[in-house]
Amino acid sequence: MSIESIIGAVGVLAIVIFVHELGHFLVAKWCDVEVLTFSMGFGPTIFSRKVGETTYRLALVPFGGYVRMAGQDDAGEDAARDPSRGFSAKPLRQRAAIVAAGPVVNLVFAFVVMAAAYFFYGLLVPSNEARVGAIVPSSPAAEAGLRTGEIVASIDGRTVATWDEFATTVRESEGKPLALVVRDESGTERSIDVQPKEMPNQDEFGEVIGRSFMIGIQRHFDHTEAGLFESISMAGQSTYRMSAMIFTMLARLFQGRVDAADLGGPIMIAQEAGRLAETGIEPLLRFIALISVNLGILNILPVPVLDGGHLFFFLIEGLRGRPLSVRVREMAQQVGVLLLVALMVFVVFNDISRIVAG
User: Fold this and answer.
1) 21 is catalytic
2) 356-to-62, 159, 269, 274, 351 alpha-carbon distances in Å
3) Which of 93, 140, 182, 243 has the fewest Cβ atoms within 10 Å of its own Cβ atom?
């Protein structure tokens, strides 16, 4: 993995984690809770400085962060100097607002990033030309030497006018070699031979919905200008769509309809961030928005130690009229930690397996 990929991954994660923790921090301050620490990262401290009552800290391990508030610990180790400013002393609605602020701000941030991407770079519209978009590594197209941006002018001597015509010809090839004439942006033509291969046909969630002959390229997208209001509208739709896709993906994972081996962790994020950073600012912005939505949605799942777990406890407290016992909450937190550690080990194993498999 290149140093650019590592820097890109740390940068992307640092941005979305900072936004998440900033949400907790600002709402805690607004509710007049004494905030003791705002930390970016875990582990040994690289830099720290105390401003007012809060210590701002940069730690060695960048994959995480936290906001520590007085009166938040059940053991009472971080008691507030003014008892009325402790987290636990605040009304249920304020505690819930502080916890929910992190995921909510992640979604708002993704919306703002997408609106900026649409406004400055325009909307992505599928091209009607038989133009090569992204190329899948180690695919027949990659092995044949096809290049991104080239237009397929003909197949086996027959002129190709549209992307649909090109895709249909490949699907109906039955795996027979195809003689392509492709044209680059300067108008120069060249001939190449490519042999389609039968591959799993997956939908946008990664679920296999059949098999067909492909050569391993994606459709090219053109840009069209978008005004301010259209950019805002499209950003709202995109943020909603990304959120819905994550919930659908989780549901299909539990149903066994999507292979859990496709899940990625920090190594995959590093690879993708580095690759997109090389292609331009716009795809990197879209990726940052996607990671921010992922962080927001996953954090509201009712898993102890996550924000959603705390909100679930608050819901029970509201229904019962009193919180769960400290013992029950501690046991739930331990289970939550084990689940998160197991998940992290699993996704890192998937990342390494993909690298080894090439």
Assistant:
1) yes
2) 25, 41, 17, 19, 9
3) 93
